[in-house]
User: Fold these one by one.
Assistant:
Number 1:
Amino acid sequence: MTTIDAPQSRFAAVVSRTTDAFTSPKSGPVLVTGLLFIVMFVAGGVRYNGFFSATTILNLLVSYSYLLVLAIGMSFVIISGGIDLSVGAVLALSTIIAARGLQVGLPPVVVIVLILVSTSTLGLLVGLMINVFQIQPFIATLAAMFLARGLCYIIAKESIAITDPFFTSMAQPIILGPRLSITASVIIALVALVIAVWVLQYTRFGRTTYAIGGGEQSGTLMGLPIARTKVLVYVISGFCSGLAGLLYSFYTLSGYALTGVGGELDAISAVVIGGTLLTGGYGFVLGSALGVLVLGLIQTMITFEGTLSSWWTKIFIGALLLVFIVLQKVLTSRRA
Amino acid sequence: MPDSANPLAPTEAVTTAPVVEMTDISITFPGVKALDGVDFRMFPGEVHSLMGENGAGKSTLIKALTGVYSIDSGEIRLGGESVVFINPAQAQAAGISTVYQEVNLLGNLTVAENVMLGREPRRLGGIDWRAMRRRAKDVLEGLHLHIDPNSLLNSHSLAVQQLVAIARAIDIQAKVLILDEPTSSLDTEEVAELFRVIRSLKERGVAILFVSHFLDQVYEISDRLTVLRNGQLVGEYLTPELLRIDLVQAMIGKELTALEDLGSRVHATEKDEEADAKTVTFLSAKGVTRKGSIAPIDIQVDAGEVVGLAGLLGSGRTELARLIGGVDRLDGGQLKVNGKVLKLRTPRQAIKHQIAYSSENRRAEGIVDDLSVRDNIILALQADRGWFRPIPRKRQDELAASYIEALNIKTPNADALVRNLSGGNQQKVLLARWLAVAPRLLILDEPTRGIDVGAKAEIQKLVYSLAENGLSVLFISAELEEVLRLSNRIVVLRDRRKVADLVNDGLSVDDLLAVIAEGAADSEIKTGAAS
Amino acid sequence: MKDIFFKVIGHRLFWPLVMLVVLIAINVINVPGFLSITVNAEGNLFGSLIDILRNGAPTLIIAVGMTLVIATRGIDLSVGSLCAIAGAMACSIILTSPDPNNVGTVAVAVLVALALALVLGLWNGMLVSVLGIQPIIATLILMTAGRGIAMLITEGQILTVQSTPFKFLGSGFIYGVPFATVVAAVVLALVALLTRRTALGMLIESVGINPEASRQAGVRARGLLFLVYGLCALLAAVAGIILTSNQTAADANNTGLFIELDAILAVVLGGTSLNGGRYSLTGTLVGALVIQTLITTVYTVGIPPIATMVFKAAVVVAVTLLQSPTTNAALERWRSRPKPTKTSSRPSEPVVAR
């Protein structure tokens, strides 16, 4: 009889494992995001000509590689139970530093190093404020946001174009095939994504980040390096914002103080839609990447639709946020 | 007091050197001297119990040893060498491992990570998940815990989480293992299991610091006792040489006459009530139940009656009380008050029907610590009136003043924040809150837990006099003596079912224990509840 | 003496007040007539202080609502978007009416805008109290979608309004005092009366300090949350209308941009903890004044106005660092430090060379 039972019970096991995975606060939301992405992509393909193609995905990656990098940094922060409101402003700051630095004749390498070091330092200061002075992340990163945005205006009020040959070369598409092309930014963002996945899953720093989100006090009593990790999380977010700004300046070939207004909202939305719990402790950085793609798809579909006005994007994103937040709520309260 | 009451009496034949030696430890918090020149030592292969009432300084001493607090003066020696730990990580690295009362693990991570985090096996510069799971599984199976190491910790019960915490401590290969109230959420079998583990660790030469309120457990497992009181050392004793009554005296520091007095009074008046035959049923519950919490139960409380709920922790005492108090919702059954069927969905509705539930969890569910004593006292009354009909300030002051006086609440004034009061006085403020809504049934869930003995006696007296005035009381306590002393009737619960409904006419602790243990012959019933 | 000193600097309004005084002093040094208030031909008050009171009114109005929300352990990020929605609603009604200068038209427009905001505030309250979603997240939804809704109302245009009664709301005077200031003062007074003369304030604090204990004491948190989020949204709409009237145009993208941050900042500067519990409306008033005075100072000192944000950052950092638990603990240690004479009287330990 076992031979007959086996497939059935295996099927039952698969079903129960699948239900478990979908109802777990750890993996449930991200699986839903994955499904949503596939459904949107297929539905878009049915409705619009030329939508269901690798080109669409690659275009998304090209347009949103900067947001992907922002979302990576934000994932670290949110998994640790914090929030970073400064990412949009820091992104703008780094485009300004790039444009201004190149304008005054600094070599591209120096400019790049300068950006990454200064944004990481800003992250470090924020981390220290949060950790040493026990200031809520909301307030500390708000201060950083004001500071970064203000510095932008001080450095340059107007938009500055970038003409540096290295930067312009980075903006050139890399042809992969007929109608298929990416940019160097896409590669950089994907490399950052792989590193982030590895760090969160396979290093003690990564696991400690989850530990902080799950319960800071418990983590401390377990002897984990909570303080150091907490600071480092904001350094990473600062670094990612700097890198995102760099990618943004490759993409737009300009620096402008008003870029990235609301970038923090996009990044937070991507992370939440990607299945990371805003309360911290659960989430995957790959989910955040999916979240970025979903946001991008919404924008693309509205463009394809043609008749819909652009403000619908905001309303759709808000509605999606609502759906995911309620979903998270349901999944976590079921387990509690 | 026995001879061994002298601190570090030379009568003991000490052959091995202590692994931990804390000398003259003092720690001061703003306004409080938490530890005042305390000495403490631990020997390898010994279980050392740290005893004391709340506020004695037990947890402060533990936190000093584990690097959570830094000491103001004194010295800590580990294996003969002077050490200074500035964080728990350092203490852990030095071989001191701690399992705290509230499980301090991470529910959002897997069981394996909770066992191994901080010492993960590595491969190619990253965490070797497979090896980690394997090792965690081994350690857990050593504790007879067969769970998937890859499951999330918070998908398991509290008892399992506690064992995972111990697994973590064991895996650290600690020289010193601190178990701070490890048994408070475990059932009898789990306690036996834990003790088996403790004994095997002892044989391996681990020094174990054991903290428990259950005296039976302390006597069963420990070799040595250190008693603290009010932040000072009372003495170090060898367990077999110390009589229980002496231990209790050492901990409490004053005679128990207050309680004994009350005991006799209660029994005396009880006879009067038996004479008084006319009883009115205030509350009757038929088959009340809640899924996963408590099986269908019938219970009845008469006007002016004190009904005790007895049973072990997790037997369903609190769960039943919360159903009647409207804190949790019924899944089935019927609740009648004065013969009328009630549907309680919130504590608010229970209060409207003059049923007040005072939670066992004073800090988390009772007091509002940043509000004043006055606000805490009037809170339930004000909530009942709604925000738009404030109690006039004058009336508030009168209420507060009368309860502060009647319950002997020690507070500088009614404006003092409740957070600055001692546990016993906080409990009295809570009682005042419930009395202010003039309930017909008062449900007291562990009202005397964790408070000093004086306040305890006062609260017991109060319960008694309230009942004399016609208030019905449902009284829950882990201390069977207390239940016996106060109750007219005792309902015994076991495994979330009602097993007996006894009239208290001269029941003894042993009688009650027998009922609680009935049908559970295979497992030893030994809990502190019987102490 | 030392004790009084520490009592004063330990007060939660000490540092914000110092900040306010310092800012005003800087202004007085730069602009000698800074403190003077004059009456112009129409009998209206004029002067830098009056400007601060008028321009700071919207932030203060929102901050008052925000204080109550924060006291319940909540936060409302959507107030900026609500400003835009209310402004857009009012302007579009006025624009579509045949007689924009009719007081009745403006009254209807304002009332409809307030009602719409109230509905959205109750939506926030529903998410927080019924669905139990974290407030920062629940209001993030409306913060994101709200600008979209505002654009939906304005159909993506900037709606410029020529209406005398509407213009009065933002820049009119009543008995010589700017109307916006009067509104702010009335809002502050009403909310203070509403919360402190009834039991509302105490119950809000109770829910903010210990929600479960409050529930068991019979406090209906759900009703309170609906009330505070509704009130906060309503006040955001009032501020939004003042802002829109000031600009005589509804701009869905920029009306009330970042005002949620200023409002939260004002609350925090005023000493109300973001962790909920005890709140101080007086503190919020001081906080809002500090923020507005700072903005004014940047103008008077001659720093490019766009750099205001850097100074805001500096103020946030300075005040939050001074109020932080770490700083207080350090102060406490310094305070309880034994006197130097005592230390020197200790027998000195022999220095052992290793």
Number 2:
Amino acid sequence: MRIMVHEQEREVAAGTPLSEIAASFPGSDLFIVNGCQVSGAYQPREGDGCWCLRKGEMIQEHELRRLLSLRHTPGVQEVISRAVVGIMGLGGLGSAVAGALARIGTGRLILADYDIVDPTNLNRQHFFVDQIGMKKTEALAANLRRMNPYVDLTLHDCRLTAANIPLLFAGADVLVECFDDPVLKAASFRLALTDMKTMGYVGASGMAGFGDNNLITTVAHRPSVFIVGDGESEAKPGQGLMAPRVGIAAHHQANQVLRILLARAGMLMGL
Amino acid sequence: MKIICNGTEYEVGQGTTLLHFLAQLQLDPDTVVVECDTEIIRREAYEGTLLAPGQNLELIRFVGGG
């Protein structure tokens, strides 16, 4: 039967374990078949796509792209790789949304924040102690490139306003609102419903403290316009923002971005 | 006169502006997005928008944190 090994067609006897096929890749100890990790005892079936890698070995761009494609399935990955996503605000929400989208191989991320990393950010934002004082755009770009060196990043180190948002994020497929300030949240949501109607939009409101996980929801306001959060839990003295719950909201947002992209590509029903 | 706001009926006086109505609800107008009979009202229009009988308002309020 025929299988694919590192994208090369190979004829093997049915029932051959992967460990035997892996003999051509000395030292390989990490086996991936059709995007899933398997043991060396796995017996590939006709048409399987197999990779025999070494744990800890550096990976090249085409290999990373191929692995993402295998793991996410080729059709889905093509949509993700073509996508342009704008992220407004790089705090607890934005830094986590960016990480999730970089890891899955989003084509281009447009990242905007005017601030620098300060010590009070580190309880929830994806920066490091040695990045205190750096611009958030640059610190996050460095971190994202360590997750996926091949993600295309556009950085805007400036304050966003209702006037400059449409210009700075022109060309984005989906815009993710990750502001702290409720006035900016409302202003950008108004834009999404008026001047930027063709763009997908995922905003957020209410994720401070340590309230119930399941009160964080994703609510549709238009076919491609959503707000994530519990709508109530504002950041205030006695109810601070904390990594766990902000992370729940951020990953609601990131998954909703993915769902909007896939729905627009006709790969997801019901949106 | 009666209006509907987020599914609840409210009695408001003639000449009540949208800004005045939001103040009655103790909402900061800058943090609220208003849809009036499916039309989004621009923030700068809140003061000049007079509520009319039977209008259906949807308010989406944003709280800080992110």
Number 3:
Amino acid sequence: MSRDKKIFAALRRLLSPRLESCLVCGRSARVGASLPLLCEYCAAKVPRIVEPRCPICGRAHGCPDCLRPEALLRAFVLNRSAVLYDTVMREWIAEYKYGAREGFAEPFSILLEQTYQRMRRELSKPFPQSGPFASPLSVFDSSRRSSVWNADWITWVPLSAERLEERGFNQAERLGRLLAGRLRLPAGELLARTVHTGKQSFKTRAERLRNLEGAFCLAPNLDPRFFKQWDSIGNRKDPQGSFPIRILLIDDIYTTGTTAAVCASVLKTLETGFKRPVLVYSLTLARS
Amino acid sequence: MKAALYAAGSENGLRLYLSLDLRVDRVWWESEAVVPSPGSANRMKHGPESLQGQGVEILSLGMPLQWASRLSGKSLPPAFLDWHAAARERWIRGALKGELNREKPDSVSSLIGFATQQRVQGSGALHGERWGSRPDEFDAESPLPGPRWKLRLSEHADTLVRLMEGRSLLSGEMISMLQELAPELEADWRSAVQLAYLQQRIKLGGAVAKERKSSGAKAGFPAEDRGGRPAGKIRIRPAGRGLPAHRCMRCGSAAVGGPCAACGSADCARCEACRALGRSRSCGLLLQGPPRADRGGRGLPGAARPGSGPTAASLPQAALRARLARWKLSPAQAAAAELAVRFLETEPGPARPGRAGRELRRGGGFFAARAEAAAAASGGRRPDTSGYAASDPASRFLLWAVTGAGKTEMLFPLIESVRRRGGQVLVATPRRDVVLELAPRLRTAFPDEAPAALYGGCEERWRRGGITLATTHQLMRFAGAFDLVVIDELDAFPFHGDPMLAYAAEKCRAAGGRTVYLSATPPRSLQALVRNGRLACAKVPVRYHRYPLPVPELLRIPSLPDCLRRGRLPDPLLKRWRHSLERGAQIFIFVPKIVHAEPLAALLRRIFPGIPVGATSSQDEERSGKVLSFRSADVRILVTTTILERGVTVPRSDVYVWGADSGLFDEASLVQMAGRAGRSGDDPRGRVVFAAPQKTRAQAGARRQIRRMNRLAAPFLLPEARKGFGRAAQAARLPIKTKISPPGSPRSAEAESSRTPER
């Protein structure tokens, strides 16, 4: 009797579609069709940025920020974001960061990967000759010989020790590592946060900048071997020696770009270490 | 987080202790235990004098909390302190075996954080520079604070223990409780907690723990987590299989380990199931206060407390009735309440079957209850309410009251019975709106008490009272706290089918406490327990207005999507709806799916112009507004889903379930939906129609259950109701020519009712 039941149960399992519960809505459905762990309905809610309007910060609509004169001085080349920071994403990212739902790292990193691929296509195209891109362009032009754009190293915005202790994981690191694994790119910690600042999300632009001034430094335990590795990357790409090294900086949300700019300026100091120009590209999950 | 680990001597040898604040341990072990508080003196098994000549040695200044917690309390081999660091570490690794199997081998040493220093000899050496000179985060203020600090510390520990009584809190929750109730403790909470821990008055541990292999639960759990759901339908935590199980100590769910930046372990699990109540993880601190029953002389129930008067067990029936008269119950309610009160006030006697497991519960107290719950869960039974009930039926009571019977009123005498003997009462319900609705009624019924109402996002999160009213999720913050636990709407979402909430409902009960389940549609497994006489039960088969329940009519019509597609509604239904509208009744139309609600409403608006029609579902923001306007007859027809199957009372209403054959409507929800009709005394005879293209077991079962209750109700019915009842039943029976109930079922129903009151 019970054996019959077991056999029937097994048969039914074989025949019925494999359903799992969706990470967001919890309904049992076929998940992972477009994004891992998410059902179709929830995946359709993702407000992807397909065509960035602002070539610098990747915003999907007009961007007054990047027209400010000081924006030109920002240390990173450009930013691309996977999705708009709308109510849906706000909720999901909060679940991910504060709600201990690390499962979200999977779909998020897929979104980042897709954005990275788009970024690659976009940056592998020749650049327009004018506009705010003049400065990166000069470097870029020389590099166009090696046909495609690729990041050389993936790193992320660090958390302070207190925040890390409280949260248990660095949301950007988790995304960065998954992304690096998918793209088979080297990844590692380059930055450290020296000051425990309050949450950026409660601050105005001026406060954010003041707040973050000097909040980051190079990671204290950077290995000398590490620089060798960079050398070899540079040599492989361009034996003549002026080839820039491109760092992809991962974060969860880009609001004013202050964090990315401050981190990028710290990363720029690496230039002295391995005597090559360093270009920082920012890739974030959401763009507000 | 990380915790320190040290070894300290006692007469029975060396033991390991964890520490959150080594200053406190230093004071504890070197002096007469910091002004021992009255209750703790006798509990101190290791007096300081036994320390003379023994060593106290710090082994680690910070290791992942879950490891320290696993190690603490372990006794060490006597020669341990003479061993080399490598040998010690080997021993520690051996003791941690199960914890380490997913760590990277080369990182374990640094995570254990072995302090390689010499043994500290004798108590005198404790003053020496070894304690103070270490670069030690726990020991930053190296010269010990003065005696005033000690005195304050012991006061703080007492306050903490008092606040923690019956509680099970994460450190974050505890801190927010302290902020509210005892702000002076907040800054120094680690010291207070550590002292209370050394006094053995609270228990510390990781909030998620790895299952010990010896419990034999290895294979059991991943499958059981799906308990209560149809097989093959939903897999809740797919990743949990095959790995050594982590289990959340707060909610009992399985969790999956991963790398953690807070403790450094590669196998630190976070519980996703109870994340709505704060982050529970392996290296997170879970504090368990003393169980309530620990307070001497309060043993409930039965134990005759001086001055509490005779208990119901010894009372003659008349006296008990007189006591219940205060609550003005209907005869059926009073009969059931009488049974329940007798149950509460009787020592669980030898007459009741299934007594074996109880000795453990009563003797072992708080943690035994938890162990038993875990055993019930792992011993092949499903970790749901029925599983727990089956493992210990003698302390439980099922109050099976039909929809509209007035369950809340019946609770009052039970609450009173426990309160007059000084017990703590909990009324838990799965839904927040019920808490909000019940709170004022409890306040009027018990003006001397101040019932605490707890739900997600409530203001008074930490208030305690003799009576606590809470959503079932809030129970996770309690452990061993209540002498009477009432679970209202046992079979309602989300309580039903959630092993986490069933676990919480078990855990919050004090040793020797009782549980009363309240339901109109108890789950089958509980019904089975009642049927074979293991679970005590009282049935209230009649509504407070003493008319029988409307018996559903099964109507065979085309399916709802078909009709919507064609834009035509079947005549039999239209005829009945017209009739309902003519007699001035409100019409409930239940449909299985949200997507059908609005289209059906639109179609109805076309067919009945001038009749206001509404539609609502769980995704409707204005749901409560629509229900209100339906109740006040501004809307005459309301199309809705199962979301309104409970808790809605509309005075004069008829119920139509279209798509009653849907798998989303089980027997219980059909009975509940049918229970929306005829609830008021003005119009006790509503109409209930189950319309579907096919007859299902659920429909027949629901009708059978209603008929059975009506039969049991016969002695309680009003004379005029009794007269009409036969006709109503006849009328309902006529249109269906199929067989309604298997032969013998009325007999078994009778047998049930006669068996339940037996004692």
Number 4:
Amino acid sequence: MAAMVLVVTLALYFAATVSFLAYLLWPSKVLSKVSLGMTAVGFVAHTIALMARMVGATDVSPPDFHEALSFFSWMLILVFLAVEFRHRLHVLGSFIVPLALVSLLSAAALPDPAPTLTPVFRTLWVHVTLSMLGTVGFAVAFVAGVMYLIQDRLLKSKRFNTLYSKLPALDFLDHLSQQSIVMGFPLLTLGIITGALSAEFSRGSYLNWNPEQAWALVTWVFYFAVLMGRLTMGWRAKRAAYLTIIGFAGVLLTLIGVALKSHGPVS
Amino acid sequence: MHIVVVGLSHKTAPVEIREKLAVSESRMGEALTRLCSYQGVREGIVLSTCNRVEVYAVVDEIEAGYERIQEFLADAHLSLSSEQLTPHLYWHQGDRAINHLFRVASSLDSMIIGESQILGQIKDAFEAALTHKSTGIILNKVVKKAISVAKRVRTETKIAEMAVSVSYAAVELAKKIFSDLSEKTVLLVGAGEMAKLAARHFIASGVRHVRVTTRNPQHGLELAERFGGTAVPFEQFREDMASADIVLVSTGAAHSLVSEDDVQRSVRQRQNRPMFLIDISVPRNIDPAVRHVDNAFLFDIDDLKARVEQNRGGRLEEAEKAERIVVDEVKVVRQWLQSLEVTPTIMALRTKADDIKRVEMEKTLGRLANLSASERELVEAMASSIVNKLIHNTMVTLKAEVNSSDGAAFVEAARRFFSLGDPALSLVDENAASASETGSSSHEESKDVEAMIPRAGSKRPDH
């Protein structure tokens, strides 16, 4: 049942992505409403799929990478809907919904998980949830950064096209990006700490320098620097936008590290 | 004698060219004197605004006149040659020149159709021309008429109400940089009309902090008071720029006041918070290289124009109404101008004199029935002789003065002295033009004039 609902979700997200991308090019109220509607229905389906999976789980086994990515995708849509509800910012959907679709697709496309590491710390799901919430923050910051750079470019080159009229003010995007990092950073910090704790319980050491952990730490240091730079050295606006994009690349590498560990050749 | 216009506008030339040709207020006198010193240029007026530089003149020969005026324009800037200007210029003569002036005055040719600023600028240009005596009877009449046409267009069409202004475009752009204008600070540099208008728009859109700087400190204080802001000494405004989110520059300075370094430094002081710079001055007062500064967004008058252009539409109908008014009024002026031609005037004078002679002769001879044929001839000869002697000097003078700078004035005078019709129009119109300034007080006055002098041609409402 869960699998079928997930297919429906994917189909809806896909349709929403197409219509949201079309919305970027054509000024149409209908398109934005249709896209938003499909996203909302998709989100409901997605929620059902996630709950079915949780209920269906036989024990308190830790979430695998599938679930983590699916949860990430679900959170992204949730954040989008929340921002949309508050600021009526349809165009954000043109950027976030495709990202959510890609992460959900990659979750579906991954091969079956390798046998889970044993013995597993029972509260590993805390680590996964926190890390994923932190990642959602960085993903939103990334999307805001991309939108910032596009709007910056349009303003600089004086191209007042449809996209220009749809993108919000630069300082709003800068603020959204900053807020997302401010929220994502402590979550990632906690995620790393709980991860280290569970590693200590399961393997007896906090840190064993696998790519996942290494990238997670590098990412953490990077975002710490971004936050500090903003507060002390005026790393905002265009530079901040570039940094959030680079930072998110680090996040993606970490996720790939995790994927390799649990799905690929075990490190 | 021909009325011509040679000029360029936002429609034909980029700001880089316009700013080179712009004639500042302080150099207007010298420019007008130079213009009138050209051979064959009898009257001249220079209209120089952000969006256009135009020379209206009365010249002896059209082609030669075009050339002189083009030379005059090219002389305005060392780096410009007459040939370089050619692709940007337009040339009109006669009715088309008058039509152009009327359209410009009525703001039909403006960047923002219906904006009212151009009328004030034409009045200023006219004022300068009067001060430096560069205009004569023809341009005085035509420019005054242009001002009254513009007023008629504004009262009879809705064109002014529908003006989408450049300042509105500036506010709209600001909203793509700053989501909440109420916390932002506007720095107004200089007191150009357009910038003041823009500042007012920003305040209307929620901006609460306004800083003003002008070269004249007293003026700055007054403006600051009017906008509920603070005045900044002109010498310091570059250092003060970092505190402003929106910088509106519009001064009459002939060089750039704000350099790339100034903006770079301000952005750094602002810790990279974006800055929005609007340069509504021509010549531009902000170095165009500021475009390359990250987090600084510079827009000049042409950029705003491009934005306005996109918002346009919906005003076409009213504009068409206005165009029709312009065409009607051009006809009126043409009739007046035709009356200023010497040959028809002399013929009219001749006819008038002969008519009087004939009527009086018939009356007199009717009573003197018993005159012999030779006596009748004598009386007739005497009447002809009196009439001819009376008008002889007038005709000789007219023919002699036709090529002098006052030729038109002589013609007009002759027409008025001998009640030769049409020119009476002029008197009425001048009164009408000043009437709309002060109200309708001279309405009766112009009626009186009409009663005194029979006139033909169409009549326009007086206010």
